[in-house]
Design a protein that fits this description.
eleven-stranded mixed β-sheet; Rossmann fold; binds adenosine-5'-diphosphate; binds potassium ion; seven-stranded parallel β-sheet; binds ligand NAX; 41% helix
Length: 511
């Protein structure tokens, strides 16, 4: 699914209005009705107090329309106009009049107004600012935002949490509604997915307001959200007369004294993701442990016991994952550099492999094209330098990917796969993944997909999604805290089954 800028959303609005021969007011009605239906479906007429805070633009207009429907269905609500500007939008005014026609008088809040009391069991609907926010809210509006944030009520934001800018801005945004849930129109917003801006909301969902799908399909976008349907179309089914050679012989290289577990996790994950054969290349100290704990794998060893000093693979591997538990010993760094010079096919590089590259940036030139680097935030910083904010981080990651011809998997909540100027956000996964070794498992999975003939981008997108889905399946049984890296491996099978389970056809084309 495409992620669009605010300008593109306004263009799609305009186009839809023209193409469908409707008024902008009708589109607002459609959007706000979706919000009402969402609420009504859950509340079923319950008399909980609903506070609807409306700005004076179209986001506020949505709040006005919502208020009208709340009134018509007998809800217990109070509407407030956060009267921060004289420049009210046409459709806001129209819907304010419609409220007044029904003898509903919103309470007008100004700088000196007393702020309303909000109770523990109340619901706040935040329709103050939408994607039109273009400067810092005035001090008194900031106070109101603070008042809502410190209230114990459940806060639902319309389209975006008010005060959260949709793109990079020159001012510091500190006055932002902390939304429990965001009901956003038509497309996900980039700011929901980045850590510094995404922290203002717990959860979000998209309400389809039928903007023209062909128009949206034609819009250029650099960022996308991976959905189940994208993966189903990437998936390569196994064929009847296939054999283990069909699915490749992957090699996992890494480990050092005390860190053989990292390689074991990656190797098992690689095999569980479907690689036909898996060999491990480890220092001598890993031999016994791996032979006894991982009978399906073949083990190759370095001449040194404690860490890797020379990498020799006596066959052509179909995919190689390297770096987990490797260490950055002098001889290992030399061996890694020499290995890169010989490497021909794309590699998956993680952990100390990335740390070595960060310290010896001349080695980046040796990377086979379309290699995949899987940094966590600290490793990313070592690799590309620090960033001012998340938008700057994206720019720097895109530039790095383009310059070196590699794919970056920026790990974290909503992991982002960066391929040149494009980026693909992941939607699976949970905080249970914040546990030792989960990154090693991911490297193994991506290597497993490369080994089976998926290209680097497909292997990264598929691998990251499946990794998160396996963790989601296990977390639904045992919660976040108890989840450990081995659980992800053990649930990869269930994740495949869940992903490929036929779903009822959707009648809407995805954009
Ligand atoms: N396709 C869609 O997504 C649709 C969007 N609609 C709604 O329209 C919203 C966008 O509406 P608008 O463009 O009117 O913008 P907003 O309602 O987000 O912005 C409020 C207005 O206040 C002004 N303003 C911005 N920042 C301010 C600040 N800090 N202090 C004071 N004034 C400020 C702006 O100039 C703008 O006129 C969306 O977020 C959504 O809620 C729906 O009504 C219809 C369909
Ligand atoms: N809060 C979170 N939500 C979703 N995924 C997470 C979260 N925290 C970590 N992850 C995922 O867990 C993995 C952690 O990788 P990494 O930090 O390299 O771990 P390790 O070095 O222990 O193997 C990544 O795939 C990352 O995306
Ligand atoms: K809002």
């Amino acid at each position: 699914m495409k992620i669009l800028s605010s300008e593109q959303i306004y263009e799609a609005d305009k186009f839809t209005i023209k193409k469908q021969g409707i008024t902008s007011d009708a589109l607002m009605e459609r959007a706000a009705l979706k919000i009402f239906e969402w609420l009504h479906g859950r509340l079923q007429g319950a008399q909980v107090k609903i506070h609807v805070f409306c700005g004076i633009g179209n986001n506020g207009g949505d709040g006005m329309v919502l208020s009208r429907h709340l009134f018509e269905h007998g809800y217990n609500f109070q509407t407030y106009v956060v009267d921060f500007s004289e420049k009210r939008s046409k459709d806001f005014l129209l819907n304010l009049e419609r409220l007044k026609d029904r003898k509903i008088w919103p309470s007008f809040l100004e700088a000196k107004s007393q702020l309303p009391q909000i109770g523990m069991d109340d619901i706040v609907v935040d329709a103050i600012f939408g994607i039109g926010l273009n400067r810092q809210p005035d001090k008194w509006v900031a106070n109101l935002i603070k008042h809502i944030n410190t209230s114990p009520a459940f806060v639902i934001s319309v389209d975006v949490p008010s005060g959260l800018p949709s793109q990079k801005v020159s001012w510091k945004f500190t006055s932002v509604i902390k939304a429990n849930h965001v009901l956003s129109f038509q497309v996900p917003k980039l700011v929901f997915l980045l850590p510094e801006t995404g922290k203002y909301l717990d959860t979000w969902e998209i309400l389809n307001i039928d903007l023209d799908s062909d128009f949206i399909s034609g819009l250029e976008s650099n960022y996308f959200l991976t959905q189940r349907s994208n993966l189903v179309s990437i998936y390569k089914p196994r064929t009847k007369f296939s054999h283990k050679g069909t699915y490749g012989h992957a090699v996992i290289i890494g480990g050092s004294h005390g860190k053989i577990g990292a390689v074991q996790l990656a190797g098992r994950a690689c095999l569980r993701s479907g690689s036909g054969l898996v060999s491990m290349f480890v220092p001598g100290c890993g031999y016994n442990a791996l032979q006894s704990s991982f009978p399906e794998a073949m083990i190759l060893t370095d001449t040194a016991m404690d860490h890797i000093t020379e990498i020799e693979i006596p066959f052509t591997a179909s995919a190689i994952g390297i770096g987990m538990g490797l260490g950055t010993f002098k001889k290992t760094v030399v061996a890694f550099g020499e290995f890169l010079q010989k490497a021909k096919q794309p590699l998956v590089i993680d952990a100390d492999g990335i740390n070595i590259l960060a310290k010896h940036q001349e080695m980046l030139k040796q990377l086979p094209e379309n290699s995949i680097l899987t940094p966590h935030p600290k490793e990313l910083e070592r690799l590309i330098g620090s960033w001012d904010d998340d938008f700057d981080k994206l720019d720097k990651a895109n530039a790095f990917s383009m310059k070196h011809g590699v794919i970056l998997v920026l790990k974290g909540a909503n992991s982002l796969i960066v391929d040149g100027e494009k980026g693909y956000f992941n939607t699976s996964g949970n905080p249970g993944l914040a546990t030792a070794g989960s990154g090693d498992v991911l490297t193994g999975i991506i290597t497993g997909f490369l080994s089976q003939g998926y290209n680097s981008l497909e292997a990264s997108i598929f691998g990251v999604y499946l990794h998160g889905l396996a963790a989601d399946i296990k977390a639904s049984e045992i919660g976040f805290e108890a989840l450990i890296a081995s659980d992800i491996i053990e649930n990869l099978g269930k994740a495949f089954v869940e992903l490929l389970r036929p779903k009822p056809p959707q009648n809407k084309k995805e954009t």
